[in-house]
Structures are given as C-alpha cells and as structure tokens.
C-alpha cells in the first residue's frame, strides 16, 4: 500500500514531438504507473499532438494516474515536418522549451522528477534551473547512443581508401567497444553531410547536457544490447536503466493470436501460417517513389503474399494496382498485433527502433530497408549482430536504389520456410523473442531495472543539480 508521502509523487514526462518518440514515452509512463501505485504522471504534448492522440483513442487507454497536458502549437505541424526536417529540429530547439517551462511553473503539483526525451536540447537545463531532478529517455538503440556519444572521434569517411574502402571498416577500430563492430564507417557518412550539419550540432549539445541529468532510461533490452549498455555505463557519470522494449505489448494480453474488429482480420485469418510478408516503412521518413515502385514490382515478381501499410489513400491504390492480387494494401493497422498474427512470416521495414523492437517481440525475421538516422544502425543490428534478417541497403545500385530483382530474391529467401538461411534467422528470432518477453516479466531484466528506478525516485535519491540559465 502506498504511503501518504508516496501518494504525493509526481513525474512530468516530455517526449520529443514525433510518433517514434511519443509512443515509447507513453509506454514508459504506463509502466511507471503500474510499478508504483502512488505515482502520478503528466505527459506534455502540443495541442496538435493531443488531438492526434485523442483521434486514435489513446487518452482513454491511459491509466487514471497518467494524464495529458498541452502546450501551444509553437512548432511546424506534424503533417508538413517532412518537407523541412532541419527547420523542424530548429523549431523544437528554439520554440518549444519556453512554453514547457511555463507549464512546469504553473503545475499545481510540483514534479518530483521530469522524464525528458534525450533529443530535447533544453530539457535537462529546464529542470535543473528549477531544482527538479531530470531523467533522460533515449528512445533509440543503445548502440546508436554509444556511437553518437563518441562522434567527436569519428574517422573521416573520405579518407585515402575512399567510400568503398571505408565501408568495410567498423567503428570499433576507433573506439574501445567491440559492440560497434557491426557499425560501418560508411553508415556515418550521412551525418557528415552539409544538410545535417545543424542537426548534428544540436545532437552534440544533447550529449553535453547529459552531464546534468540524474539518470538515463533506455527503451531497449539488456540481453539484446548488453555490450552497448555495459559500454555506456563506462562513459556516463549517472545511473542508467534499460526498461524496454517500450512498445505497446500490454495490448496483446489475451489477444495475441487473433485480430478482432478490423476490416483486414478475415484476410489475415485466411492465410497459411508464416506465409505473409508484412510491409511498412514508418510514419515519417519515407522512401522515394521510384524505390517504392521497385519494392512493389519486386513483391509482385516474388509471388509472395504480403500485407502492406501505406499511409495515404493515393499511394494505397497505386501500390495495390502494381502489386496485384497476392496481397492487401491498407492505410493503417495495429502493427504489433499484425506482426503477432500467425500468418505473418516476415517484415519488410525501414527499421525504425519501435518497428525493430516490435519485430523482435513478435519473433519475426526482417528485411531491412533503412532510409536514415538510427535506421542504418538498426539494420546492422538486425542483419549482422542479431542475425535475424537481411540488410537490403547493402545491395543498392549506383543510383542508391535497391532493384526489384534484388528485392524479389531477398523476399523469396526470407519467406522460404525450407531455406537454410531463413530457418537460421527464424530460430534466432525466436530466441530474441523469448529474451525480450522475459525481460518485462516479473524478475526479468527490464522489470528489475524499472523497479530500481521507481525505488530510486521514491527514496529521494534523485538530487537535482541547480544551475542558472
């Protein structure tokens, strides 16, 4: 039973304004509320994001002690952020902090701690200036964190060997962390481009600010990234907690084998076990129309059944026409429930971290088609570190496109249940599935880590370092 003191505990959570950040933050907030009956959580989002979450029915699914609070829409709309990614990053950096700070000052209950997305450059300082302990939440792989943390020591990608020679070199040749062996120097070339010069400057500020954080939470699983987690403990001065996978696994309870109340249920139910390739490239960073066409034609040539989520109606109609009658193209689905359906035997993905974790949780092998940012590292983890999939990026043509013949061959290999490579990937995927599910069960690594953090908070061990702005 919660004590009177415990019932007064209050945490404010501030996610980065993007679906790939808000979703795991909400999962962590649900977990915190479940782990501590005396804890109330306030999640701060923009008015636009509040409306988007309300339209999806999210507020109704939150525990009573987890509520949403809003700030004005001071940043570009989610619907147009893809047209100017750098401008969006700058707006979040320069315009979002002030209204969040005003909200912190106006709250009826002073927070005992603030959980803020690591990418919010002003987040740690905002809490520290008010004497509020700040916990940073990293919503991407720990391996990517470790690589970015040492970006001041990255080698030049345009060295004497050129890009081709550099592509074979691993980052672990430059840092004392063997876990970075799967990350190639060519993977970081995108971060050296002029287009990302300003965002990378903000990332550098992020890691500089971490010295003021009281702890860092990771939306990962220790068993999946033990080398990276152990490496991070060597370089960060504060405690770290792995609390993942931070995906909506709670909605699967009692309903993992059947999808109900959705118009695609009957189609999936009618397909043989492990016969359908699930296809989705995320909600934000999209691939070119020419690459999408190659994917569609590759699926058509493979003759493999597929279930494809395309976000807009025009794209959905076009892809259905190109792909033919072997599959179904829809504008939306409950991704984790679909991945957990018995008919799904593979996942063609952009390899965002949430999608990657959902594939692992569902025990589904992956065809990785990363576009940018952490997706490049996630694809390396999938194919080279965990060995549960194929990295299509490695098979691009000179124009940067993966051709339909290559896609068709990779799809055929992955979905052939008699193929030796496919069987090996499936066996490994089952092992990682067991590890990720065990982590959140009572006594598991993430279960223990989350409760250690809650105890850390309850015992008042989060001591903010006050600073002036």
Describe this structure in words.
The chain is of the alpha/beta class. The chain has 19 helices and 13 strands. Strands 3-2-1-4-5-6-7 form a seven-stranded parallel β-sheet, with helices on both faces. Strands 10-9-8-11-12-13 form a six-stranded parallel β-sheet, sandwiched between helices. Helix 7 (142-149) packs parallel to helix 10.
Rounded mean pLDDT score: 88
Beta-strand residue percentage? 5-15%
* Unreliable sequence segments: 1-6, 160-165, 254-259, 465-469
Helix share, percent: 40-55%
Distance between the termini: 40 Å
Trace the largest sheet across and list its strands. Answer: 3-2-1-4-5-6-7
The total of helices stands at 19
Shape: globular
Q: Decide which structural class fits the backbone.
A: alpha/beta
Number of strands: 13
Instruction: Describe the main β-sheet briefly.
Output: 7 strands, parallel
The radius of gyration over CA amounts to 22 Å
GO molecular function: glycosyltransferase activity
Keywords: Glycosyltransferase, Transferase
Protein name: Glycosyltransferase
Enzyme class: transferase
Question: What descriptive keywords fit this protein?
Answer:
alpha/beta; single chain; disordered C terminus; 469 residues; globular
Offer a concise description of the structure:
This protein has helices at 19-35, 47-55, 58-61, 85-95, 97-106, 123-129, 142-149, 162-166, 197-209, 226-235, 265-269, 289-302, 313-323, 335-339, 353-362, 375-385, 404-415, 420-440, 445-458, and strands at residues 9-14, 39-46, 66-71, 113-117, 134-138, 215-218, 240-242, 276-280, 305-309, 327-330, 344-349, 366-368, 389-391.
């Amino acid at each position: 039973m919660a004590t009177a003191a415990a019932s007064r505990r209050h945490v404010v959570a501030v996610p980065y304004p993007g679906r790939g950040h808000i979703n795991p933050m909400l999962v962590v907030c649900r977990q915190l509320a479940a782990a501590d009956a005396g804890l109330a959580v306030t999640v701060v989002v923009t008015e636009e994001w509040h409306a988007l979450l309300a339209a999806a029915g999210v507020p109704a699914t939150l525990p009573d002690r987890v509520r949403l609070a809003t700030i004005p829409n001071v940043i570009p709309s989610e619907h147009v952020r893809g047209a100017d990614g750098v401008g969006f990053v700058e707006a979040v950096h320069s315009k979002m902090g002030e209204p969040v700070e005003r909200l912190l000052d106006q709250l009826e209950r002073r927070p005992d701690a603030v959980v803020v997305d690591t990418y919010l450059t002003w987040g740690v300082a905002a809490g520290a200036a008010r004497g509020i302990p700040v916990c940073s939440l990293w919503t991407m792989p720990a391996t990517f964190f470790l690589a970015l943390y040492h970006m001041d020591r990255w080698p030049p990608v345009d060295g004497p060997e050129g890009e081709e020679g550099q592509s074979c070199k691993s980052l672990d040749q430059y840092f004392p962390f063997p876990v970075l062996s799967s990350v190639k120097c060519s993977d970081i070339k995108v971060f050296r481009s002029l287009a990302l010069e300003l965002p990378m400057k903000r990332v550098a500020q992020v890691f500089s600010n971490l010295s003021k954080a009281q702890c860092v939470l990771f939306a990962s699983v220790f068993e999946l990234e033990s080398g990276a987690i152990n490496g991070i403990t060597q370089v960060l001065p504060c405690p770290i907690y792995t609390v993942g996978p931070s995906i909506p696994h709670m909605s699967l309870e009692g309903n993992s084998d059947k999808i109900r109340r959705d118009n695609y249920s009957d189609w999936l139910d009618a397909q043989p076990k492990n016969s359908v390739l699930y296809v989705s490239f995320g909600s934000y960073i999209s691939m070119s129309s020419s690459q999408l066409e190659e994917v569609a034609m590759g699926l058509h040539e493979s003759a493999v059944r597929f279930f494809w989520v395309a976000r807009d109606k025009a794209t959905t109609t076009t892809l259905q026409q190109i792909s033919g009658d072997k599959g179904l193209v829809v504008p939306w689905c409950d991704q984790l429930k679909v991945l957990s359906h018995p008919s799904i035997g593979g996942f063609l993905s952009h390899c965002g971290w949430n999608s990657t974790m959902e594939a692992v949780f569902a025990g589904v092998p992956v065809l990785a088609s990363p576009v940018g940012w952490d997706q490049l590292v996630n694809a390396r983890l999938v194919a080279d570190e965990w060995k549960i999939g194929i990295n299509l990026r490695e098979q691009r043509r000179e124009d940067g496109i993966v051709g339909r013949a290559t896609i068709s061959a990779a799809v055929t290999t992955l979905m052939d249940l008699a193929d030796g490579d496919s069987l090996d990937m499936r066996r490994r995927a089952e092992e990682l599935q067991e590890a990720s599910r065990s982590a959140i069960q009572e006594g598991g690594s993430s279960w223990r880590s989350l409760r250690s953090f809650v105890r850390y908070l309850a015992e008042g061990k989060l001591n903010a370092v006050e600073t002036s702005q």
